[in-house]
Amino acid sequence: MSRIGFFRTAGCAIMASILICFAVSSYSLAEDESRQEIQYVIKELKMLKAQMAEKEREIKRLHEEQEALRRALRQRDREIEL
Q1: Which is nearest to 25 in space by CA: 33, 14, 37?
Q2: Taken in order 44, 45, 47, 48, is the CA torsion positive or negative?
Q3: What does the pLDDT read at residue 5?
Q4: Per-residue three-class SS string for the chain
Q5: Rounded to an integer, what distance in angstroms lies between the CA atom of residue 73 and that of residue 21?
Q6: Each residue's pLDDT tens digit, 6-50
Q7: What values do phi and psi take at 62, rounded to 5?
Q8: For the whole model, what pTM was predicted?
């Protein structure tokens, strides 16, 4: 093998190993970004779940308040009839 052939082969091997390193690092970066996106979505879902629970408590409180007002109206109507 001539020197030029040797250097060409060695150069190709070096370039291939560099490309492989870039590919692996790009994959790792993409994987990290995916993890971060998934963590962000999970965080958002937890926040929405907490908001939903708060709204459900508010709805329950409003229903209880509405029922108390209905009872008060019925009581007042009974008193008026007497």
Answers
A1: 33
A2: positive
A3: 62
A4: CCHHHHHHHHHHHHHHHHHHHHHHHHHHHHHHHHHHHHHHHHHHHHHHHHHHHHHHHHHHHHHHHHHHHHHHHHHHHHHHHC
A5: 77
A6: 556 777 777 777 777 777 777 777 787 888 888 888 899 999 899
A7: -65, -40
A8: 0.55
